[in-house]
Amino acid sequence: MNNFYYSIPTKILFGKGQIENLGQTVKQYGKRVLLIYGGGSIKKIGLYNKVMQQLADNGVEVVELSGVEPNPRITTVNKGAQVCKEEGVDVVLAVGGGSTLDCAKVVAAAANYEGDAWDLVKDASKVKKVLPIITVLTLAATGSEMDAYAVISNMETNEKLGTGHEEMKPKVSILDPEYTYSVSKYQTAAGTADIMSHVFEEYFERSEGAFLQNRMAEAILKTCIKYGKIAVESPEDYEARANLMWASSLALNGLMHYGKAGSWSVHPMEHELSAFYDITHGVGLAILTPHWMKYVLDETSVDKFVEYGVNVWDIDKNQDKYVIAKQAIQKTREYFLSLEIPMSLREVGIEEEKLEVMARQATRFGDIKGYKTLSAEAVLEIFKAAY
Amino acid sequence: MNNFYYSIPTKILFGKGQIENLGQTVKQYGKRVLLIYGGGSIKKIGLYNKVMQQLADNGVEVVELSGVEPNPRITTVNKGAQVCKEEGVDVVLAVGGGSTLDCAKVVAAAANYEGDAWDLVKDASKVKKVLPIITVLTLAATGSEMDAYAVISNMETNEKLGTGHEEMKPKVSILDPEYTYSVSKYQTAAGTADIMSHVFEEYFERSEGAFLQNRMAEAILKTCIKYGKIAVESPEDYEARANLMWASSLALNGLMHYGKAGSWSVHPMEHELSAFYDITHGVGLAILTPHWMKYVLDETSVDKFVEYGVNVWDIDKNQDKYVIAKQAIQKTREYFLSLEIPMSLREVGIEEEKLEVMARQATRFGDIKGYKTLSAEAVLEIFKAAY
């Protein structure tokens, strides 16, 4: 097990009706809030009104930034930072899914930065003072509610980059599974795939001795497999929504990572797909994952795939190890298919002639140092297999 | 899944050599420290000198409280609080196992309380300002390094009571598995049983829908089962010590509890054994656990035992459910035996004629509202079976 520094300071208010604590919570951190949200779905489900009521009841003044994109753009971040400066905002409240939360994090950092917020995305060490961030989550997927990270797109440069800073961890996140009832089947499936991919990126890794972390990773994977399907079929199943929501937070708050080295592979590849085509991140991950698994399966990784197959998919362990490994990969693919995720890059509108430029772009800073090192050629091979 | 409020603010420095960060860490919280430790084993392993060096190098002044008992006593706590007041201590540093940490927590709370510290043990709501607490852990067992709780004994009244307060959570804990190399086989076995019991107390519980928490609980149990044995046999196996150490923290920092109601049964029974006889807590838990399991096994609990047996012990699921449940209980008992834990109350020196008074004492505030409600008669029946 590797050495680690554990710090998960975000407080969580989890469950039905926790929105009743929002006003008091925000008031502890400031009196002039920038409320950030996306395309208006929070109005449709009545959450916007509840939020405004809570803030008004607690004497918190509100300015708004709406229209955050599914892949949040740096132009929107800069707009939010500008509002913070002009309006003397002292706390940022994000209400929505991971995109809205990611946008809010960089807004909160950029509010105290003179210059283009894209600088902070490219170089997190430039982040200094960050406004306190509170979130109300409406989609179980990215884990942004409990971590330091944000992914921001720059459509001018076709770049989609991650950034992160300890100070960007939300102070408090409200997780009410009922606010995810209205999430579409498609987005529920994509969110489930996103959570699973976060776990895969830590699980398939070469460090030795992190047994506990591996068993916990399997706990989250089994939870996703069970409840992703239920939530897609019965969107108002509280138990399913609650398990997925808590899984999304634990998958990426550090618990899966502490003690391991991390070796992210599929996310860096997928980021190029959604940078170029604005496709749903979780869908891109689901499409690529089984093909990436096939690509990395070899004598050095087969035992890990056996562990995965036996512990997560309950595959009979008394078989040849490659048989088990391939069954595990097949089951992963079939599972995503059962969630009705389109399982090829062609189906989500990606053009074959763009694969090469995206593969080059994914490795523009060098090979992807993942579970198995991936060159541009390797990425292209995976993209082609997934086409 | 039940609603919950998650707050785990303790930062962890985990792994070899983390002691190098102690001085800087303490300095962030104060400049005059009360160093609390037990019977001097920290001197034997060279840790005391390293701690003193770190504090000196960082200009931190030290006063000491040594001789904390294995079941820490309120007299010692009061002595520590007195020293804090007289010496103007502004930060408490506990170096040792759970007993030392527990003692330090109540010392840190009592330093700002006028009166007998026993008041704070009996009524945690009296805890107000608590001195910042830093810990260096030398025994994987109680989880005290990352939680709000402390158990203190009063030998005058034959009472052993738990107390807890959010402010009593350590600010930072240093967890270096190498400092547990010198823990005896007996204490390693007892510590493993303690960790497992913490998980059992949350796992065997009636709330519905906490699937993720249950799978994580199994992850910790499997970790204990694998590495408890290895650590007993090979005390300097880093991987085993590391997995047990991290398991001890995650078993009791709240992760297993959030979303569930909790239904502690074996701890309240065991506390009477060690209050009367000063036996090793984990040993008492190991002795009682299988008998408690047998006692609570019925039509309402059998499915839970099947879950436990199949998921943790890999018992063939294609059997009668009571067969699986009984095998699971038997395997639990055999496991503790394999760690060379004496598995009867008689063997640890408890007198049969005291069972009744201890059973009455365990239920003096009413029946134990555990997984199954336990009256004084029920507790006595379990004690007798375990004798």
TrEMBL record, chains A, B:
Gene3D superfamilies: 3.40.50.1970, Dehydroquinate synthase-like - alpha domain. InterPro entries: ADH_Fe/GldA, ADH_Fe_C, ADH_Fe_CS, BDH-like. It comes from the Bacteria. CDD domains: BDH. Residues 188-387 form the Fe-containing alcohol dehydrogenase-like C-terminal domain. GO terms for molecular function: alcohol dehydrogenase (NADP+) activity; butanol dehydrogenase (NAD+) activity; metal ion binding; methylglyoxal reductase (NADPH) (acetol producing) activity. This is Iron-containing alcohol dehydrogenase. It comes from Zhenhengia yiwuensis. The lineage of its organism: Bacteria, Bacillati, Bacillota, Clostridia, Lachnospirales.
